[in-house]
Amino acid sequence: MRALVMGAVNNVRTKILLGTGGGNVSAVTESFAKKLRLGRLANAGLNIDVQGIGNSKVETTTRAMVNMTLGWEVVYRFEVWMLDHHAGVDVILGTGFMIPAGIPLDLFNSNAKLPDEIEINLVKSASARGDSNYGEAISGGAAETMNVSSRFTAEFRLQRRPPDEATYELWVMRVNKLVPTVRFTQKRRPSRVLQTNTGGKPGSCTARFPVIQWIPHKLLPLTEAYARVNLKKYRDWQVVAYDAAVDRDLLKK
Known about the structure:
Layout: E1 2-9, E2 12-19, E3 27-28, H1 30-36, E4 48-50, E5 58-60, E6 63-70, E7 74-82, E8 91-93, H2 95-98, E9 105-106, E10 111-114, E11 118-121, E12 138-140, E13 146-148, E14 153-157, E15 168-173, E16 178-184, E17 190-197, E18 203-205, E19 212-216, E20 226-228, H3 232-244, H4 248-252
Parallel strand pairs: 2-8, 3-7
Antiparallel strand pairs: 1-2, 1-6, 3-8, 4-5, 6-7, 9-10, 10-11, 12-19, 13-18, 14-17, 15-19, 15-20, 16-17
Protein name: Peptidase A2 domain-containing protein
């Protein structure tokens, strides 16, 4: 179970993923650590590898000491791992943080209580597709099945009036070897999606498959296969697409 909350790391406000399914792991991404100029702690022979946060196993030997704020007043000082966990946000906090910090977890009723008596709902992950909150998500995909030859790029257009960005966040999904690239108008509205086949064989994406999802700010996608376009995970996809594409100029536009 998990929940997305606002907090701060070293006084920098950011979204934080609270999760009970990933065990006791608490971590920040390498890019966020660099932004905060976090000092690295001595190795001391410690390391960790994590399976299940993203699509593959990740490991690290690097830790940092941070000041973590939940709510507006209570600050916790503790160690986190530095690794690119592909969870869709820069900071994840596991039960190894929440239990010592005294955050009550009521898994039966799917809620937790943050400092200042703020109560939040815990959302089940991919298996909870019946959760009514996800009826608010808005999907975007190709009107017809897309068949893309190896190293070539195809595109589909999005609806003319995207959901209000004050309410929704844009997430995008990689479908097997088809890497998505979102194109925006001059007013920064998403208008179309390029699909680059990075594999050695033809690939396809079925009609109406939700490559794009607009999800309310306080929710997360039901699968970790989605990424926000402003995160490292998405930028890494673009490097893969550019390296594989026959027409690289198309991806530069």
